[in-house]
Amino acid sequence: MSDSDRDAASSAAVLDELFATIESRKEALPEDSYTASLFTHEKGENAVLEKIGEESTETILAAKDDDLDELTYESADLVYHLLVLLAMKDLDLDDLREELRERF
Ligand SMILES: N=c1c2ncn([C@@H]3O[C@H](COP(=O)(O)OP(=O)(O)OP(=O)(O)O)[C@@H](O)[C@H]3O)c2ncn1[C@@H]1O[C@H](COP(=O)(O)O)[C@@H](O)[C@H]1O
77 alpha carbon to ligand 1 midpoint, in Å? Predict the structure, then answer.
């Protein structure tokens, strides 16, 4: 495997690795983890739902400004919070992949 193939494979795995980390935070609930704080928040699931609302707005504003760096940054924030929501609802990336695959 070439270096660029290895880099591409590593990039492709990042969502799975991030989701596995989110699941492990959900299980262990370490005190210093932002992710864990979303699972234990006093607002319940509203905490992550509000973040998804905020990050969606910030993503839209970045797109309207044509600020591609900001669009990438806010999109990553949005995807991360969406993955936390899926984990909260006991869904996972395979559920998402399956839904997308059915639309092909
Ligand atoms: N990918 C993320 C990730 N994306 C966003 N965030 C957090 O989401 C929060 C977003 O807050 P804000 O809306 O205030 O965003 P901001 O970027 O500070 O500011 P603006 O968007 O308003 O400009 C910040 O606290 C970010 O740190 C994330 N926190 C954690 N992760 C990953 O989650 C995994 C577990 O990390 P812990 O949560 O530290 O255990 C690790 O792999 C991390 O890389």
Answer: 6
Domains and CATH numbers, the chain: 3-102 (1.10.287.1080)
Taking only the tens place, the pLDDT of each residue in 23-60 is: 999 999 999 999 999 999 999 999 999 999 999 999 99
Indicate which residue's Cα is closest to atom 27 of ligand 1: 34
Distance 33 CA to ligand 1 centre (A): 10
Structure tokens at 42: 């006093």
- Whether residue 28 contacts residue 36, with contact meaning beta carbons closer than 8 Å, is answered with yes
ipTM: 0.91
For ligand 1, whether the C-beta of 58 sits within 6 Å is yes
DSSP string, 20-71: HHHHHHHHH--TT-HHHHHHS-TTTTHHHHHHHHHHHHHHHHHHHTT-HHHH
